[in-house]
Amino acid sequence: MPTHTSRPRSRPSRRPQRRSWPNTPLDAAQRAFDLLVCPPAPLAFDGRGFTGLPDRILPLDALKKLLIDDATPRSVRDAVWRELVVRARRDGPAWVIAAVGIAMPGLRRTAGRLGRGWPGDSSDRDSELLTGFVDRLRSIDLRDTRIVGKLLDAGARAVKAAREREAASDAIRVRSIWSMPPQQPWDHPDWVLTRAVAQAVIDPDEYLLIAATRLDQVALATVADKLGISVALAAAWRRKAERRLAAAIRAGELDWVPLVPLMQGSPDPHAFDGLPVDHARDGSAPVVAEPVHGGGS
User: Fold this and answer.
1) Basic residues: which segments have biased composition (predicted)?
2) Which end of the chain is more exposed for a tag (fewer CB within 10 A), N or C?
């Protein structure tokens, strides 16, 4: 009886999945460090000649474990960190990443401690922390002790300085979004006068009289001549119009009067452009007088 040999089932080949690049500064720095120490050519530290270290070439991840071990004397840590700073200054970005990666446990503790009260995105805080740490690599005095502690302190100072700059700025951070309330009718004097004309509180001549003398600082005599009336009559018109205007504002009669299409039929605010300005006035006269309900002009 013939026998059939079964073919072994072929297993589908699995392609290694690419890990997406981290989107936070500390995680990105950790990933860069991990890539530095992975085969086939990991970055390594020569431990020979350093008292307290194994007498061999050490992978950086192994060196990191030794440096954070409580059993490692501080003098050994300082000696290794002096060498790491020298390498970062001399040998370029790979050793800057190495220094950051080896200090990562301390950087994360510092970030967590500074997270309380940070007003913005934690990524901004971590960026400031890393910037302060790396900047200090270039300038720290290698004769000092507690090298890595002072590098971490520099990162913390950078975060605190950024927080102070944020507090001193005019920006207001909110946790939610809402609509801005409509603008009040007293936001701009021209708009107040336009609404007052639309509501028949003042007439177009009174609009131009107030706008020219109060806002544009044109002499009252010049405006009176333009309107063909005496100075005394112009002053009386203006005074009565301002009283009616004050009363209307206080009574809310001008609230929420739409400006469009009212502006199309409003008096021309530039009707008195080119007229001489009254320099004798100090410009401090109010647009409205006391809130007295006035009669017609």
Assistant:
1) 1-18
2) N
